[in-house]
Amino acid sequence: MFDGYTMGELGAIFAMQGFAGLILFSVYVLMALGLAIIFGQMGVINMAHGEFMILGAYVTYLCSLFFATFLPELFGVYFFVAIVLAFMASGSLGMAVEWGIIRHLYRRPLDTLLATWGLSLILQQVYRSVFGAREVGVRIPEWMRGSLQVTDLVEVPFNGLLLMTLTLCIAAGVYLMLYRSAWGQQVRAVMQNRVMADAVGINTGRTDRLTFGIGCGIAGIAGSAFTMVGSTGPTAGQLYIVDTFLVVVFGGAASLFGTIASAFSISQVQSVLEFFLSGSMAKVLTLLTVIIILMLRPQGLFTLKVRK
Amino acid sequence: MTRQYRLFTLEEAVNFALLALLIFVILPAMLDPFRLNLFGKYLTYAFVAVGLVLCWGAGGILSLGQGVFFGLGGYCMAMFLKLEASTPEATAIQSTPGIPDFMDWNRVTELPWWWEPFQSLPFTLVAIVAVPSAFAFVIGLAMFTRRVGGVYFAIITQAIAAILTILIIGQQGYTGGVNGMTDLRTLAGWDIRPDSAKLVLYFVNGALLFLCLLAGQWVRKGKVGRLLVAMRDQEDRVRFSGYNVANFKIFVFCLGAAFAAIGGAMFTLQVGFMSPTLIGIVPSIMMVIMCAVGGRHSLLGAVYGALIVNGAQTFFSEQMPELWLFAMGALFISVVMFFPTGLAGLYEDHIRPRLPGLRPRRPGRAEPIATAAAE
Fold this sequence. Notes:
Chain A is an all-alpha fold. In chain A, 73% of the residues lie in helices and 2% in strands. Chain B has one domain (10-280). Chain B has a two-stranded antiparallel sheet with strand order 1-2. Chain B has 16 helices and 2 strands.
């Protein structure tokens, strides 16, 4: 499949596709971080995670409309406002869902899957009723449109750079919250041993709600970032949910570092293969590889050693 | 142990008979041919749901990829029918007569080797069951011997469903792509399209469903069924007692796959086409939902669940298309939260105690499963 390319061209192809893969990587990481918290830490299978992401995307869309209509001079910075709003919108919906549905199902993880699937159907229909069935796209501010010419074969778009910076910041933030804050300590304590955590005085109910809310909020940010690279439709979330779950499982469900590493490898492989094969075959090959590796190493790439 | 278990209690026999009455007498008598064909289509999903009762309800193995097996069975049938419909005479206008039309559109000039055997009906009938079962065996062997279970198994099977769909859509020239295989006409010379043929197929479908139900009942009542329930609740204890847990799981997973495949083949025959939209992630989850609504511990409940969920889907999408996703979503959430044992559980708890001559069942009935959480 490499026939007919010189070494220099191959290098440029790998660099370009690698960079395109980094954008995919950003979306995967942002989606998967939220899911890794919810699924990896809490053991809840949130099939509506994609819909939380799309909520973030729609909030960003509304935000861009608002700025374009009322505050055109500030349009360049709407994206940052939108990120915060998207986080808050998805986060509060997440907390409401945790309170209404999830908290009754902690002992039945497979059932959370069915219930959140029902939720995702409802949310999809809500989006369809409110925003219409057609996909919507946001107008990207001028300063984000250019691209950086690295060599004469390789160029790097600004929005991709921004997306990656954002991803790195959020990943760092999640790491700090989970492993360096009192809240993170409580979350990890509750997930490892709920009864014991309760006994030492941790408010497990509140911790759960906050954890779920933050996981969903990060999905909202993912949606916000997603508008930079694609258009948003009511069912767009569903396209990503399987990939994201595989990313989380492949990385080792409870390991944050594993999630990032697996998002990186999956997105890179897929993106580079896409250049040489058709898009669908690239996807099939990537997913198959992941599944075969998972069959050989069911616990994922990185695992947390916990005494059970 | 050589103890014999009774296949049916009197109550179960009556319930089986009532279902048979509904399927073979009441529905055909009440419905016009179009609606009856629709119910025949719903009943093909009941095969999958019955398989899920065995895998999920009894064995605690939740597969989100049953659509894969449904689809493989359906595609095996569709390939045979398509080849029969693509005689050189019928396809004379193509640039390569004698191959299916979608191959010709995609500039495939000869029949791929793996299509060749599907010109034979006996081979096809064997393949319908054998191909999905073999596939399930490979998946099961890889997963269960490595003790992958619960949530992880669910996610991996879901990914397999995604892969198969993408593959079928991507390889248009060999599979018909996203449109699937359409324009199927005859089965060994017998036209499957007129109403009279549909009526025959409906009864064949019903009979096959009862065969599967009987097989399911036999498995559940026998030693395997008891071991499955024991494994679902306390897998380690069964393992320590010297049983090879993986083998039983593989067996029941393959059985579920075979049931789903028969359903898929009957779907192709009754509806007249097969497409990747029927076998992907969304349909696979719908199949699980049917099982959950009917009652994941009840074989007969699964049949009613398939009828009700599909019936509701048709009703809502005909009458109020905007509302049907709301209604379905609400149905799933409420079933999971308030009736985890489904319709069959409602019958057990509310109707059964009021029936004359039936004592309440012994306490200690298996609670809804909590497999992964207990690990």
